[in-house]
C-alpha cells in the first residue's frame, strides 16, 4: 500500500527529472538527443531500483521521503551538470554510494532500536570524527571542515551530525524524567536539578570549542541547535532552549570579539558592499545572481554563472552556493518550490516522530528533522544574506560525497522508523 | 513529546517562510537595485559581445574605443589619464562608472531609440554595434586644466562650463588615474589616501569660504536693503554677532567702505553683518535659487554627483534646519558647515555671467548611431533663474574689480578681462582650500569656471593661474 503510493509519488519526479536534464543538456549543446534523455532516465532508474528494494525490505516505510529526496538530488545534479559536467558524474557516483548506504543500513539495522545499546559508541565516534577534522583537517575559507585522504576529500562533520543525533536520542531518552523534574526556580522558570544540567553545559562547551577550533559558526550552531531541539522534545521544558539560546548567544558574542574569522563573517554580513572585490565578493556575487533570477529565472543553462574559462563566478558555487545558481536560473518560482520541498520533507520527518510510539524513535526522528531544517536554514539564509554566511552544504542538493552519503544514511533511519510504526499500526 | 515536536515543526515553518520572504525581497523588490549596482559586472560581461560605441571629444578625438579578443570586446582609453573621472570605465571585473555607466544603453545599442535601427540592420544582416557618444569636452582645454593642476601637485578640480549653453568644456580632477591600468593598480588606487578614483569635480565637497559671498551678495542686493554703494565702517577688524566674534583675515581693519569694496577685498566682518541683516530665510532661499540642496542635473550617474549645502556628519542637512544668529553670520562668508562642489560653483558663475540664468550642465553633446544618424542631440536648457539681469550685472562689475584691484590679481591677464571671486577656506590640520570662481571675457562671457586646490598656500593665490590658463585655452588665446 505505502509502496504503491510511493510509486505514484515518483511520477512527477520522473517527469521533472527527465525534462530538467534534457533542458540543461539542450542549453549546453543546443540539441536534445538520446543521451540527454538517458541521463535523466538513468537517474530515475536508480531510485526505482531502491523503490523495488523497499517493497521487499521496508514495505510500510513513509512513501514521501524517497521521492522527495530523489527530486532534491535531481535538482542538485542538474545544476551541478550545468556548472561542470565532470562534477555531475562524480556526484552521480556519490549518489550511488549514498543509495548503497541506504540499502545497507536498512538491511543491517532492520531493528534500528538496537542502536540504543550502542549510543555511547556512536557518541564517541561522532566526537572523534570532529576531533580528527580539527587536528588533521584542511583549512578552507578559514574553517577546518575538510579531511583529505589521498584524492578524496571528506567532511567528517556530516557523519558526526547523524552519529551524535543517535547518541542524543538514546541519552536523552534514558535521562528524560530526571531532566524534566523541577527542583528549583530561576526567575519563575521551573528548573531541573543543577547536576542534571551537566550535559547541557557540556554540550554547550563542546559546541563552543567546535566554534573556536573549527572556526565555523555554522557547524557549531547546527550541533547546538540539534541538541537544544532534542532536549526540548525529551523534557517538554521551554527552559532548555531558552537558557541554551542565551548561552549560545553569549558564546557567539564572545567569539565575535575574540575570533577574527567570526568577526569578519559578521562584518561581511552587515556590509558586504564595502569590500565587494575582496572579503565580500562571494556574498555580493551571490546576491547579484539571486537578484538576476527575478520571478521566473533566466532559464536552466542561461544564467551568468561561469567565466569564459569555465570557472564559476561565485567560488564554491556547486557546494555551498548551489542555491544561488538555482535562484538565478529558476527564479523566485523555482527556488520557492525547492524551499517548499524542503519544508514538506521536514513535515514528513516530524510526522514520523509524532506517529512513532517510543521515546528513542521519536527523539531520533525529531533530531534528524531539526538538523535537516536548521542546516537548510543556515545555508539558504546565508547565501541570501538573511543571516551571516557560513559554509555548510544544502542537504541532498549540494555537491559533496560526505553530505550526500550521510544524508541518505539518515534517510534510511527515518524509513526504518516509519516502517516500524506503520507496520505496528497495520497489525 | 508530541507537543514539542509540533512546535519544532512550527518553528521550521516560520524559518522557511522567512527564507521565502527574503528571497522574494531579493528577487523582486531589490532586483533592480542589485542589477543597477555599479559593482554588478554581470550585465557588463554579458554586453561584452556587443561592439560598444566610441566616446568622442568635441573635436572627435577618441576617448574610449574597443579591441577584440576572441568574441569579446574590451575597452581602451587612448587618452589614458586625461578624462577618466567623467568618461569612467567599463570593465568586466571592476564594473562601470562615469559616462560609460550612465550612457551604457546608447553605447551598447540597447536603448529604445537604437534598438529600432538595429532591428532593421539585423534583418538586413549588418553586425550589431552600439552608438557613439560625442562629448562637449574639448580635449585641449581639458589637457590645460589637468596639467595646470598637476603643475601645482596637489589634490584639486577644475570645471569649465560654456556660459550660454551649460555644455561642460573641461572637467578635471587630481590626482587622476589611467583606466587602461585598472587590473594592475586596483589595490593601490583604492588604498591611496589621495583617492585618485574620486571625481572631485562633482563629488568633492569643499568649504566655500569667500566664494560664497557671491550668494550672500545676491541675496543682499535683491532683498532691496542693499546696493553696491551701501556704506560700512570697520574699525577693529572684528565684529560681535550673537555672542560670537567674527574677524577678518589677519584681523585687518578696513575702515570706511561700501558693499562693492567689501566684496572686492573679501571683508568677512562686513559680510557677517550683511548676512545678519538679510537673515537665514533669505540666504537659504538664494542658496536654493542657485541650486543648493539638490543634485545638479547632469549626465553622470546620480551617485557620482553630490548636492551642495549645509552638511553634518557627512549628511546634507535640511534647508529648514534652524541656525542661531552667529551661525547665519558665519554662513554669510562661507563657513558654518557649508560644503559645495566645484560643479555647483561653476554653475553659480554661469548664472552671474549669463544675466541671471543658470543653465543645465551637460557633457553629452550627441549620440550618433553607426549609420551616422544623430539619435539624440543635447538642447541647452535653463535650470534656474536665481538673479535679475541687473543684479547679475552688479555682481559682474564687482567680480571684474576682484581681478583688477582685489584678491584675484593672480588671475589677471592682458589678453582678456576675467571676472572672478576668490576664496580661502581654512581646513584644520593642513593648508587651506584655495578657490577661484569666475568667467571670461567679462563683457561677453563665454566660459564660466570653478577651480579648487586643496592644501594650498596661505593666500590661496595658487589657484589663480589655473583659472587664467584654462580660460585662455578655452578662448583660444
Q: In words, what does this structure look like?
A:
- The complex is a heterodimer of chains A (427) and B (477).
- Chain A has 427 residues and is mainly α.
- Chain A has 14 helices and 5 strands.
- Chain A has one domain.
- Chain A has a 3-stranded antiparallel sheet with strand order 1-2-3, covered by helices on one side.
- In chain A, a hairpin with a 2-residue loop joins β4 (184-186) and β5.
- In chain A, α6 (156-180) packs parallel to α8 (217-235) and α7 runs antiparallel to α8.
- Chain A is globular.
- Chain B has 477 residues and is α+β, with helices and mostly antiparallel strands.
- Chain B has 17 helices and 22 strands.
- Chain B has helices at 2-29, 31-36, 42-46, 84-87, 98-102, 104-107, 112-123, 139-152, 182-191, 200-203, 213-222, 259-265, 268-289, 325-332, 342-353, 389-405, 464-475; strands spanning 55-56, 62-69, 72-76, 89-91, 95-97, 132-135, 156-162, 168-174, 231-234, 238-241, 244-247, 255-258, 309-312, 315-316, 338-339, 358-359, 364-368, 374-377, 382-384, 419-427, 430-440, 447-453.
- In chain B, the strands form 7 sheets. A 6-stranded mixed sheet of chain B has the order 3-2-1-6-17-18, with no helix packed on it. A 5-stranded antiparallel sheet of chain B has the order 8-7-22-21-20, sandwiched between helices. Chain B has a 3-stranded antiparallel sheet with strand order 14-13-15, with no helix packed on it.
- The longest helix of chain B has 28 residues, at 2-29.
- The radius of gyration of chain B is 26 Å and the shape is globular.
- The mean pLDDT of chain B is 91.
- The A-B interface holds A 229, 232-234, 236, 273, 276-277, 284, 287-295, 304, 308, 327, 331-332, 335-336, 339-340, 342-343, 346-347, 350, 353-354, 359, 362-363, 366, 369-370, 373, 376-377, 380-381, 384-386 and B 1-9, 12-13, 15-16, 18-20, 22-24, 26-28, 30-31, 33-35, 37, 39-40, 42, 45-46, 70, 72, 93-94, 186.
